[in-house]
Model the fold of this input.
Amino acid sequence: MDSTPATPYRMNPTGGCPHADNARLLARGAVAEVVLPGEVEGMAVLGHEALKEFLAHPDVAKGARHFTALREGRIAEGWPLTTFATVRGMTTADGDDHRRLRSLVSKAFTARRMEELRPRVEELTDELLDGLGRAVEDGNGVADLRQHFALPLPLGVISELLGVDVEHRDRLHHLSNQVVATDIAAEKAVAANRELVAVLGAIAAARAERPGDDLTSALIEARDEGGDRLSQEELIGTLVLMIIAGHETTLHLITNAVRALCGHRDQLDLVRKGDASWADVVEETLRWDAPVSYFPFRYPVRDLTVDGTVIPRGTPVLAGYSAAGRDRAAHGPDADRFDVTRPGRPGTVRHLSLGHGAHYCLGAPLARLEATIALERLFARFPGLDLALPEAELSRHSSFVGNSVRTLPVRI
Done:
């Protein structure tokens, strides 16, 4: 056996389809050394079982104070991944702080609240499908499903939850795209972060003057009650996280599911015949083509051995969701196959694409609700829907964090 240490994998800032590289990395092992943009050394946990263990490990933290290179001043200003590490909110908090921040927004995502939201999601879905039909007519039979449907649905829902007026939404999506981009220049990254904070600060100020029945007003009330419930910085940080995570992930999920079904008509037929459900489509898409490929960051608070590999204390670690979703050790020799009837393996969760442990995605019920309604109504309205370009010609998202395509031209 070759004992030569593997060369660290250099993360591609421009993104691209991750699956071929993931397979090569998984062949080496469940944990890989990586080089992040700016020559920052890190690691990625790729294997399903290793990632499951790592995400729930008590000696793994999310707070940026545990990021050694950042604490020592070795991260340049404008580093494209800075926001992931430093934004003040539940995704960068640990222990009591994490529980406090999560509790302030958790009521917006309960099962009861999701059922209350269902009629509005259905109404918005139908409105957008009307618009998609008009866009196809105007576009000589072709329209961008991502622009006209997959984006405005989750963006509209999370904006209504947060009390964000319509005039701000396109700008917030643009800035969100820049914040999660991994190929962005330093000066653009700094400008995008500043503008995003400024726009959300203005939205928060407007809600403070005119409170409503929305999550931003509730967070402002918590801030203004004094004590240690929520600081102004945490308020804005929470809004940053909510607006980005609240629409980008579901946008990719819907887009990837449509691509998967158009490329696997036999699987679409199974759903139409009742041999699988739309919920099955959503779960298999989450596994097979995770909307988030590599999520930054977690940091071991001590040297930690995961699947035989030592991850040094303070190392920034990526959660390799797209790799774990196709890990053959967990999902069998046909892990690369899109199969909506795939049974769960005994003792194994179906996928980790919405996280695991204390930081499990708070918005998972909303993402599932939106995607299930969107797919069912889309294919009911347009049963002949298909891609207008071959899969290989679709332009990929420019990030190794988000995993999807920039546009999705379709014929209906």
The first helix runs from residue 19 to 28. The two ends are 53 Å apart (CA to CA). The chain has one domain: 9-411.
